Every structure is written in structure tokens, then in C-alpha cells.
Amino acid sequence: MWEKMSYEEILECAVDPYPSIREWKKRTGKRVLGTTFADVPEEVIWAFDILPTTIMGTTKPLKKAQALLPDNACSLARSNLELVLSYETDLFDGFVLPQVCDTTQHLSDIWRLNVKGKYFESYLAPRQTDRESAKYWVRKEIERLIDSLSAFTGKRIDESDLKRSVDLHNENKRLLKEIYDFKRNNPSSLSNRVFFSLVKLSQQVAKDELNETIRRVKESLKDGTKDGYIDVILAGITCEPMEIYDLFDEIKLNVVADNLLIGSRYLAGEVDPGEDLLDRLAARHFKRGFFSPIHGNVFGEFEELRRLYRENGAKAIIYIHIEFCESQEYDLPDLKKMMKREGIPMHVVETEYQTTSLSHLRTRLQAFFESIKGT
Ligand code: SF4
């Protein structure tokens, strides 16, 4: 199913992967665990023969979540809760929920209270990542998750189960990075939409199958051109709805680097080779890029984006702002000021998970890039 997808099927599946996950579950008889952003070690869940699926909202209408969350909860939290309460009530056998910001802390309590009869576990990543004790903390959290999954499944995993899973997930990230490297220099050969759909699906479906499709996409790529394209850096957490990438493709924007969770921050999660597998899994938490809720350095995002902009010779940064995301609301005013001071053009795209019309975004993006061309 996921191993032989055409471009059209990749796009369709990335918008709504759940019918195919249901089919996979029926076909394999295996369990599915839902997680939310960020940094739950998916390799550990897969080692138990369970599919880890990152829940990334729905574009379907909100019915129940509004009444359970405050009006100023971010649209991702509202949309995720709606998905499990109204649209995918039976799909998930349980959830591993990290708590990265105030919203996700409250959300995980509300989630537990309103979704009954399922397995629930938390995953608590440290916020002060520069402290020595943070490494110990992450390792202990991974061990705690392994014990919890053992109790849930009645199964123990050994080093070889975990290694097989890590190898599979590493291969996925390596393939995606190779495609990204190619796309950067040949944007006419692969659209932003297809590439980021593959990255998104990698966090949602079974990689033993999906890697086949990714490998075929990679092998089929033919040299293209950069003529007429504008290189940009994409910033934020997620970029949804996926049709935003169509706008980029239409305006001929070439995303050459990013700091998205459904992007380079995920790809940076390849586990390094070495002796102690749990230590290596813990160590990769610290090599991932900036994510505001779990990093203490308030200048971290600015420094990272400025570096990406300069190293890639990009023309501008596009920042995707999720409506009511508390951490982005804190970061954005200073980020805008700092970019302006550095003379780096940055365009902020306001998004909402239930958005269906993008015509206003098109007009603003076009106007912004017309002004860039004129400079
Ligand atoms: S980090 Fe932002 S988008 Fe993510 S759950 Fe928290 S408030 Fe919502």
C-alpha cells in the first residue's frame, strides 16, 4: 500500500493518512499509538511492533473540541483533540503524549478525561537542555516508556529489536535528506508539496513500506533547473494545510532549508552509531534544531534562521504562524525586530488548521515576493 505510491497518492495520503492506517491495522493485526509533537522516540514504539503515528490535526470541522478547550488554545491542539473525539475514535489503541508547552500540558489532561478505555503514557522532555542532568533525564524517560510499553503489550524488547527499528528509521531520514539535497538544486524536478508530504507521512505511516516509495521517488529524479525560482527558508512548527506548499510551487519559491518539526528538525533525529543504543537515542534529543517550548535560549531561533538564510544564500524567510500558538506568540515580536535589524526579509503567514481558503495568503505572498524581486 504505502510502498508503491504515485505522486498523486502521496499528496492525498499526506492530507488524510487515516483510511490507509486503518487498512494497515486490519491487514497486519497490529496496534497503532498516536503521539503529538514533539520528540517521542518513535523507534521505541515501533520496536514493540506498534505503529507510532504523529497526530497532526484535521481540516474537518470542529464539533466537540471548542467546548473543552479555552478559546485561545492553539488551532493545532483544537484540531488534534477533535480528530480523536469525532473522526478517529477507534483507530488508536492508545496515546503517548508529550508535554511541551502549557497548552499540551492541559490538553493531555483533557484528552485522558475524554477518551476512555485506551492506553495512555506521557513523555516529558527536559526544557533546560544545556544542563548536564538533561541527558540523564532523557534516558530515564526512554527507559520509563519501554517499561510502560512492556506492561501494555506483555512483551519485552531486546537490543536487536531496538537496533532494527533504529536502522529502519535512520534509513528513512537518510533517504529524505538525499532527496532534499537534490531538490534544493533542482526545484523544477520535485515540488515542495511532494517533498514535504513525504516528510509528513514519514511521521505517520509504516516506514518499512514507505521507504520503498521514497527510494523509488529518489531513483526517478531527473536533473532540473533553478531558473526563475526564489530560494527561501521556511520557519515555524508545521506548515498546514498542505495546500500552502502549492502556493509556494505556483509562485516558484524553492524551500532550500527549514526548521519545521515536519521538516529538518525531524530529519536531524537520525541516531548516531556507537555502543550504547539507549544513550544514543537520548543523545539525539540534543542535536535536533531549535523548538521554542523546549529550549531555553531565547535567541536560539533567530540565530538558527539567520545561519540558514546566510549559508543557503536565500532571498527571504517565510514564517508559518499557527493561530494562538503561545510559544510563537512569545517569539515572533522579537524575531521580527531582529530580522529587520539584520536586513533579512521575513514574511509571516498566519495559518489555522481548519483553513480551507488560501486566496488571501496567495495575494500577500505574491505581493511580498514582487517587492523582493524589485530589491
Ligand atoms: S507549541 Fe504551539 S502549536 Fe504546539 S501545542 Fe503548543 S501552543 Fe500549540
Write structural notes for this entry.
The protein is α/β, with parallel strands linked by helices. It has a domain at 7-155: Rossmann fold (3-Layer(aba) Sandwich). Helices cover 52% and strands 12% of the residues. The chain is built from 16 helices and eight strands. The chain has helices at 7-15, 18-28, 42-47, 65-68, 75-87, 102-114, 133-153, 159-185, 192-202, 207-220, 243-251, 264-267, 277-284, 300-311, 326-342, 359-373; strands spanning 31-35, 50-54, 94-98, 119-123, 230-236, 253-258, 316-322, 346-351. The protein has a four-stranded parallel sheet with strand order 2-1-3-4, with helices on both faces. A four-stranded parallel sheet has the order 6-5-7-8, with helices on both faces. It is globular. It starts with 6 loop residues before the first helix and ends with a helix. The model has no long low-confidence stretch (mean pLDDT 93). The structure holds iron/sulfur cluster.
Total number of β-strand segments? Answer: 8
Give the names of the bound compounds.
Answer: iron/sulfur cluster
N to C succession of SSEs: HHEHEHHEHEHHHHEHEHHHEHEH
CATH topology of the domain at 7-155: Rossmann fold
Distance between the termini: 48 Å
Flag low-confidence runs: none
Q: What characteristic shape results from the CA principal axes?
A: globular
Major sheet details: 4 strands, parallel
Number of helices: 16
CATH architecture of the domain at 7-155: 3-Layer(aba) Sandwich
Radius of gyration: 20 Å
Mean pLDDT: 93
**What is the helical fraction, as a range of percent?**
40-55%
Q: Specify the structural class.
A: alpha/beta
